[in-house]
Amino acid sequence: MNMPFYVAPEQVMKDRADYARKGIARGRALVAIRYDEGVAIVAENSSATLRKISEIYDRIGFAGVGRYNEYDQLRVAGVRAADLKGYQYSRDDVDARSLANLYAQHLGQVFTHEMKPMEVEILVAEVGQTSEGDQMFHVLYDGTVMDEQDFAALGGDTDAITERVKAGWSDGLDLAAAVRLGRSALAGEERTLDPADLEVAYLARGNGRRCFRRLSDGEVEPLTATATS
Amino acid sequence: MPMFLPNDDPGANFPALLRRTGLTETGPGGERFGGDIPHATTCVAVRFADGVIMAGDRRATSGNLISHRTMEKVVEADRHSAVAIAGAAGPAMEMIRVFQLQLEHYEKVEGSALSLEGKANQLSMMVRGNLQGAFAGLAVVPIFGGYDLRRETGRVWAYDVTGGRYEEREYVTTGSGSLHAGTVIKIGFRDDLDRSGVLALVAKALWEAADADSATGGPDALRGIYPVVATITADGFTPVADDELATTFESVAEEVRAR
User: Fold this and answer.
1) What is the pLDDT of residue B2?
2) Which of A68, B11, B38, B51 lies in disulfide reach of B147, CB 3.0 to 4.6 Å?
3) Closest Cα in chain B to A56
4) Do A106 and B3 touch (CB under 8 A)?
5) B41 is catalytic
6) For B25-31, which contacts have Cβ atoms below 8 Å and span 24 or more sequence positions?
7) Best residue of A49, A84, A107 to probe chain B, by most B CBs closer than 10 Å
8) pLDDT for A70-125, tens place per residue?
9) Which of B24, B41, B216, B231 is catalytic?
């Protein structure tokens, strides 16, 4: 009988983490930035139909980077979990924290028990009744949850992107300034990103029951046009 | 996390998801239900150039008693459509809730809203799902209307208890007072009616229904309770304000006084 090779658990976890990280780093990044009326999310995405950012519930948005089929599966599961909870209890009982925990459980489970970890990082953002209530949860491929304060960067090259956002962020940005900041932080110094290369959406307190809105390329252009002036 | 294998995934169908997760109770069925439960009554929807106007009275009755004076039978299904119900109030309200959730759920999962025809068809399946309830005496019969963004026109549908779905060109009605309301609209309907013309017509229809049907409530100026009236146009679902309804019903009253 052949004995299976012994591989140290540390090595297994490290290999899986490296594998997931590599997959995530290959994709393009996105940033979420808190502004005066909510949370703006800017993603580098040249596709106008395969989306990275979407609506989960009245006040909750979702963004994912990495493998599209994997984060899209998580997105749909999130919409289902939220809609079921809202149906079973009340719309007010659906919150980002418990959803982020569900995601963390699932990703953690897949990371330790399945052949292949999910090559995704996701963000669950919620706008509160006031800006103090805004929340952003960043969930990693292995189920690690991070509670982000004012901004978050997901995907490849996030250290540099985070630095650039940090340099430009201040409390009380408006939507246009937040989108401009996101656009320039994603682009860096060497390149410029056209609205066609971006996917922009935001959650705003003033949008009525469903706070999520998507900005078309045509709407992004005038919003970011004043960047250089 | 509600996750499913690809071969048995409920897709964007919220009622199917409810069934899969065991959240739907088995509907009423079997023996005929003997008790008095609240019933809701007259609702109408009329097409006009800009879209649809839908209206419904506020009364719910249990047997010979008035159980609610402020029921809202005309509700926003989503931004560009509305649904109004007649029948057993409990199952009807639940149906509307699941219907609203289904439209939103589909939009979120698929990334785009259902077509108006798709929404009407979805509602048809939900009515059919209540067939057992209908046999038990808990029938729900909605009407549905909305603005079709692809065809750029208002459209209205009537249903029967078996889920039969009938698109009408002018107007649809439902409920115990629907015969009277429908007759008023049938006589007064013109292709060129504008918003205020249709508003006056539906007000008159509800007035006559309330006048002849004990289960339909009229405008209650004393308490300030008026029927729910809403327009559904390219701009979406907009409720008509109580002030405007008060004036409209006052002119109906004037006309009745002058008879």
Assistant:
1) 87
2) B51
3) B108
4) yes
5) yes
6) B27/B91, B27/B129, B27/B130, B27/B132, B27/B133, B28/B91, B28/B132, B28/B133, B28/B136, B28/B138, B29/B132, B29/B133, B29/B135, B29/B136, B30/B132, B30/B136, B31/B136
7) A84
8) 999 999 999 999 999 999 999 999 999 999 999 999 999 999 999 899 999 999 99
9) B41
pLDDT for B30: 62
Given a cut of 80, whether residue B24 has pLDDT beyond it is no
A176 part of contact set with chain B, CB < 8 Å: no
pLDDT exceeds cutoff 60 at A228: no
Suggest the residue from A45, A76, A90, A212 to mutate for an interface test with chain B (most B CBs closer than 10 A). Answer: A76
pTM score:
0.92
**CATH placement of domain B38-257:** 3.60.20.10
Contact call for A83 and B105, based on CB within 8 A: yes
* Chain length of chain B: 259
